[in-house]
Amino acid sequence: MKIEFAPRNIPLARRLQTASVLLWLVLTVLLATICIIIFAILIINNYWFLYIPYLVWFYFDLQTPAQGGRRCHWIRSCIVWRYFMDYFPIHLIKTQDLDLSHNYLFGFHPHGALTAGAFGNFGTNHSAFKKLFPGFTAYLHIISILFICPFFRDILLTTGLVSVSKKSISSRLSRKGGGNISVVVVGGAPELLYAYPGSFTLYIRQRKGFVKLALTHGAHLVPVFSFGENELFDQIGARDRTWIWIFQQKLQKFVGGILPLFYARGIFQYTLGFMPYRKPIHTVVGRPIPVHQTLHPTRQQIEELHQTYLEELSKLFEEHKGKYGIPEHQKLIFK
């Protein structure tokens, strides 16, 4: 394999973009493990004056991720995230105005390898969100287990990320007067195995909890498709459905979730590594689906709204795919 090295005369701005994405990768993939190790060292070495106060704080702060979080606008506005957005770059596109008197539930698709588009647009202050949706507050909901990791949870909360638990989503969608947007990456862990270039498979047919929550609280549903999300990383064995990919799929069903074997480019070379490709991401926010509040929705009502959502998601994809280089014959595949 011939390695293609990056030229020496790369502009400073591009180097800063690379550094910002590298920081994001460390935060996303490694920091939780590092924080657990640090906490274990404190306990092993009996630094009780450090870990006991933290455990007390943890106990009283346990419900914060399910009650709107604790965002820090200084962190969300940090210049690091501006360079992060410019690396790909990431764009947010609005197709229709939203009524500030309502709450909304955004269904984000696809999951992608690390949901870069979701984080950039809804987890930082450097996207066009405030300009496109003035007066609204967006809450990006992520897997709840991350909020029991010592220290790491506190870092996540500063960016405005909150738990994806039922209680957390309900607390945002039940706000009187409207103005809240819950962003849920619907596909979850099972969709990770379909996160590779050229893939348009969404794991959604059995994902109906978000629809039930929208009905329960009368929150309008909005499909969101992030074009380019799956183009950031390749995945070993995925395109050809090799035994490696098949084994990962079986393992995922058994353990509930795994991190597939992703790869892309390197830091100082373009041939192989774990840095995402510089591919543009266009996150398109579709038309809202009006939802009338039903405190105790029936299975039929959930099924009907779920089907309507799938139809609107397909329409959104069909209307915009040509703008982003997707072949006319390509359709969304629902699993």
From TrEMBL:
Coiled coil: none annotated. It catalyses: a 3-acyl-sn-glycerol + an acyl-CoA = a 1,3-diacyl-sn-glycerol + CoA; a 1-acylglycerol + an acyl-CoA = a 1,3-diacylglycerol + CoA; a 2-acylglycerol + an acyl-CoA = a 1,2-diacyl-sn-glycerol + CoA; a 1-acyl-sn-glycerol + an acyl-CoA = a 1,3-diacyl-sn-glycerol + CoA. Pathway: Glycerolipid metabolism; triacylglycerol biosynthesis; Lipid metabolism. It is found in: Endoplasmic reticulum membrane. Pfam families: DAGAT. It comes from the Eukaryota. Its EC number is 2.3.1.-. Signal peptide: none annotated. It is a multi-pass membrane protein. The keyword Membrane applies. Keywords: Acyltransferase, Endoplasmic reticulum, Glycerol metabolism, Glycoprotein, Lipid biosynthesis, Lipid metabolism, Membrane, Transferase, Transmembrane, Transmembrane helix. The chain crosses the membrane at residues 21-49, 138-164. Belongs to the diacylglycerol acyltransferase family. This is Acyltransferase. The lineage of its organism: Eukaryota, Metazoa, Chordata, Craniata, Vertebrata. The gene is MOGAT1.
